[in-house]
UniProtKB/TrEMBL annotation:
Organism: Cyprinus carpio carpio
Record Pfam families: RPE65
Assigned protein family: Belongs to the carotenoid oxygenase family.
Protein name stated in the entry: Uncharacterized protein
Domain of life according to the entry: Eukaryota
Residue positions binding Fe cation: 185, 246, 318, 499
UniProt cross-references to InterPro entries, sorted A to Z: Carotenoid_Oase
Cofactor(s) named in the record: Fe(2+)
CC cofactor note: Binds 1 Fe(2+) ion per subunit.
BP terms from Gene Ontology: retinal metabolic process; zeaxanthin biosynthetic process
Keywords, comma-separated and alphabetical: Iron, Metal-binding
GO MF terms held by the record: all-trans-retinyl-ester hydrolase, 11-cis retinol forming activity; beta-carotene 15,15'-dioxygenase activity; metal ion binding; retinol isomerase activity
Length: 504
């Protein structure tokens, strides 16, 4: 994901980009930002972001981009003024690591070992206590009912206070649903209903993927999670090797599940983990002969359509949008060519190399492209792709156009590592660019009286590691033409963030 973002970027001062992968401290209180330009009066709310913020515990380093401990960021906007605040999320992984001053729970690409201070018998039995799944929720933030949750891709989500950034509680979804984990990219309907997908064991120990449904806020103020249920189940192509799933598609009447050749070897996960100290990355493998399968299911009632279509192999992390169009389902995706797992290139040692080595490693990684496909609902017999651009971290006017025919998508352009605007119909593109700058995923916020799809702003956190004063800022762009409206600069470095949301 991030390595390939660097491929075509303008040459930056040696080593400057590495600062976005360095540990930082949380803030005791919000700090004021220096605003230039004019923030729209209607833009009053909070930009919430999450990502890794602690890349080592004492002398023990984390090895993968997705191992750093979860740090939550907040830009508050009110009356043209902006403040910035951040706090580490008090997950079990973080609290225990800080208490014991070592890595206690195995992360995505970093193995936790028994306490060396224990005797040999204690260390031996620690290996056989089973898998302790991480709750390091560094990937995304989303609402459920009237609450907000930070998440990763395990069965744990963490309830947080979006105002104070205080950690409230850990929730184990396995207590309510038959899933082993869910994605960090759920879908939300206008009434607050939340849908997500996760793998599970079905009948006769067969592997499957469950679409789960969490109802909207309850009149009696009870927790919607307690009323969640499995809505429909997709079969797996392999019995003990589920595909890695990072997101899924949803139209007004259908769910779209794309099963990729990147697999999790469950037998290895369940057996060798406890004995040999295996981490999550060690359990991934790629099936170069499988290709990629498209599955469909209806939403109401939730029923699997017993047809699927096979295409050439590609990695998939983010859906852009899906919608129905005259008997077809249009599926827009950010894909990466081939079956080689992109996350293999996101080890921190690779990303912190000298610039020339980073570029060489990136050229060996799968290459990105945006694909638009049409799948016939009544007779799933053909599928065609059109490559329209190369970007990642896609966003749309989600509130009004999720699951509907749309025109504009926004993301990080991988040819220049800057926010892009893409007309998915005409293939026309717009970009914002500034030398030596590293933006985050741009989030779309619609104007309150908007009549057009693209009437609103984009918000992105931009870091300029080579600048000594105010090295980071909140960037606000016009979503119509990507002209700059305002920026709010802060005098602290902000490490890489992955995903987030805007809370009005």
């Amino acid at each position: 994901m991030w390595t390939s973002v660097f491929i075509y970027s303008i040459e930056h001062p040696a080593g400057g980009y590495k600062k976005i992968f360095e540990s930082c401290e949380e803030l005791a209180e919000p700090i004021p930002a220096h605003v230039s330009g004019k923030i729209p009066a209607w833009l009053t709310g909070s930009l919430l972001r999450v990502g890794p913020g602690l890349f080592e515990i004492g002398d023990e380093p984390f090895y993968h981009l997705f191992d750093g401990q979860a740090l939550m960021h907040k830009f508050d906007l009110k009356d043209g003024h902006v403040t910035y605040y951040r706090r580490f999320i008090r997950t079990d992984a973080y609290v225990r690591a800080m208490t014991e001053k070592r890595i206690v729970i195995t992360e995505f690409g970093t193995t936790a070992y028994p306490d060396p201070c224990k005797n040999i018998f204690s260390r031996f039995f620690t290996y056989f206590q089973g898998i302790e799944v991480t709750d390091n929720c560094l990937v995304n933030i989303y609402p459920i009912g009237e609450d907000f949750y930070a998440c990763t891709e395990t069965n744990y989500i963490t309830k947080v206070d979006p105002d104070t950034l205080e950690t409230i509680k850990k929730v184990d979804l396995c207590n309510y649903l038959s899933v082993n984990g869910v994605t960090a990219h759920p879908h939300t309907e206008p009434d607050g209903t939340v849908y997500n997908i996760g793998n599970c064991f079905g009948k006769n120990m067969s592997l499957a993927y469950n679409i789960v449904k969490i109802p909207p806020p309850q009149d009696d103020k009870s927790d919607p999670i307690e009323k969640s249920k499995v809505l429909v189940q997709f079969p797996s192509s392999e019995r003990f090797k589920p595909s890695y799933v990072h997101s899924f598609g949803m139209t007004e009447n259908y769910f779209v599940f794309v099963e990729t050749p990147v697999k999790i070897n469950l037998l290895k996960f369940l057996t060798s983990w406890s004995i040999r100290g295996t981490n999550y990355m060690d359990c991934f493998e790629s099936n170069d002969k499988m290709g990629t399968w498209f599955h469909l299911a209806t939403k109401n009632p939730g029923e699997y359509i017993d047809h699927k279509f096979r295409t050439s192999a590609f990695n998939l992390f983010h859906h852009i949008n899906c919608y129905e169009d005259q008997g077809f389902i249009v599926v827009d995706l950010c894909t990466w060519k081939g079956h080689d797992f992109v996350y293999n290139y996101l080890y921190l040692a690779n990303m912190r190399q000298n610039w020339e080595e980073v570029k060489k490693a990136a050229m060996r990684a799968p290459q990105p492209e945006v694909q638009i496909s049409k799948k016939k609902i009544e007779n799933i017999s053909s599928l065609g792709f059109v490559c329209v651009s190369a970007f990642e971290f896609p966003q749309i006017n989600y509130k009004k156009y999720c699951g509907k025919n749309y025109t504009f998508a926004y993301g990080l352009g991988l040819n220049h590592f800057v926010p892009d605007r893409l007309n998915v119909k005409s293939k026309e593109t717009w970009i914002w660019q500034e030398p030596d700058a590293y933006p985050s995923e741009p989030l779309f916020v619609q104007s309150p009286d908007a009549k057009d799809e693209d009437e609103g702003v984009l918000m992105s956190i931009v870091v300029k590691p080579g600048v000594t004063q105010r090295p980071a800022f909140l960037l606000i762009l016009s979503a119509t033409d990507l002209t700059e409206i305002a920026r709010a600069e802060v005098d602290v470095m902000i490490p890489v963030t992955l995903h987030g949301m805007y809370k009005p």
